[in-house]
Design brief:
Blueprint lengths: L1 H33 L3 H24 L3 H22 L7 H11 L2 H19 L5 H37 L9 H18 L3 E8 L2 H8 L1 H18 L4 E7 L2 E7 L3 H18 L1 E2 L2 E2 L2 E7 L6 H17 L5 E3 H9 L1
Parallel strand pairs: 6-7
Antiparallel strand pairs: 1-3, 1-6, 2-3, 4-5
């Protein structure tokens, strides 16, 4: 969700650049052409055309990676070219270019581009008769760029922090329900597009309420953290882990059929039983697995795995049940 907001912000900058180029630069194309300044008119026209095409591409693809690079590169080169063609009077165009680069590009690339711009501006500054004024022009550009860098860096840190708060469970540091919904939606999209399988595994601790009632919630929380750590250790690189709520965990086994997911689930079950202990003794788990079906929604998919997990509890706990087995049992 927050990643989408960052993407929308960058798209907004690309669109804004196109609008400014259209209404701010396009009139100069006409004026320079009428004044016989054909080279400058062509340069302004190129700026308008590229900015518009870049915005159109970003809108059609909803991609920001290449359009952001193109927008930053175009704005930087065009600004330098405009200043070289028109002289130091147009030096102020550098300030928005410096600022935009830090929001369109990653910090190392933005710094590199801005340093190159600074070097390119030295000959322009030297054209000013007053050397103190020339130094002041470069110093003000450096100061403005540094301040924008600090601001963009802090904004990015806060964005990352909010991203963590929005997608992670505070206790276990696993993904939360919001991030689970997003990952399940991605799996459904992959299945529709390419037929890539995926299986949801719902894991629930057996008799966890007794641990909380008899030994306190602090003990229960420590137990949940231990289980989350074990799941991280045993999970494959392609697996995604979530705490659904309470003592219920979800493992999203991507590119995995149901029978293979059973092997993954059995590994979790046996490892937890062997290594996780409460004051009352060993901890067991009940697990349900459901492979994504064609035309199924995320809710329907999850509910089948959840029903399989409850079937495992009804059959005596400490076992893995496949959704197909639970469905066959219900039909009988």
């Amino acid at each position: 969700m927050l990643e989408d907001s960052k993407k929308r912000f960058q798209l907004g900058l690309i669109y804004l650049f196109a609008v400014l180029a259209t209404f701010g630069v396009a009139p100069f194309v006409v004026m320079r052409y009428l004044n016989g300044e054909y080279l400058k008119a062509i340069l302004d026209l190129i700026i308008v055309v590229i900015a518009g095409a870049n915005a159109w591409y970003a809108y059609r693809t909803q991609s920001v990676f290449y359009p952001s690079i193109l927008a930053a590169t175009q704005y930087s080169i065009a600004t330098v070219a405009v200043i070289y063609l028109n002289g130091p009077l147009y030096f102020f165009w550098m300030f928005p270019a410096f600022s935009a680069n830090f929001f369109l590009l990653r910090a190392p690339f933005a710094i590199t581009v801005n340093v190159l711009i600074m070097l390119a501006m030295i000959p322009i500054a030297m054209q000013v008769d007053d050397q103190v004024a020339a130094f002041g022009m470069l110093a003000s550009l450096l100061f403005a760029g540094s301040m924008t860098f600090v601001f963009s860096r802090e904004a990015n840190k806060h964005h990352q922090l909010l991203q963590t708060y929005a997608t992670q469970d505070a206790l276990t540091q696993l993904g939360n329900r919001r991030s689970m919904d997003l990952e399940m939606t991605r799996c459904i999209d992959d299945f529709k597009r390419s037929g890539i399988p995926a299986t949801v595994i719902v894991l629930d601790l057996d008799h966890f309420k007794e641990v909380n009632d008899n030994f306190g919630h602090q003990c229960g929380d420590e137990l949940l953290v231990d289980i989350a750590n074990l799941l991280r250790q045993r999970a494959r690189k392609t697996d995604r882990l979530f705490r659904f709520g309470g003592e219920e965990f979800v493992i999203l086994a991507r590119n995995t059929h149901q029978e293979s997911a059973r092997v993954v689930a059995e590994d979790f079950r046996t490892q937890i039983a062997a290594h996780i202990k409460s004051p009352a003794g060993a901890i067991t788990t009940s697990l349900g697995c459901a492979e994504l079906r064609s035309g199924e929604t995320a809710i329907q998919w999850f509910e089948r795995a959840d029903r399989a997990m409850y079937q495992a509890k009804e059959e005596g706990r400490n076992r893995v049940i496949l959704a197909d087995e639970a469905d066959d049992s219900g039909a009988l």
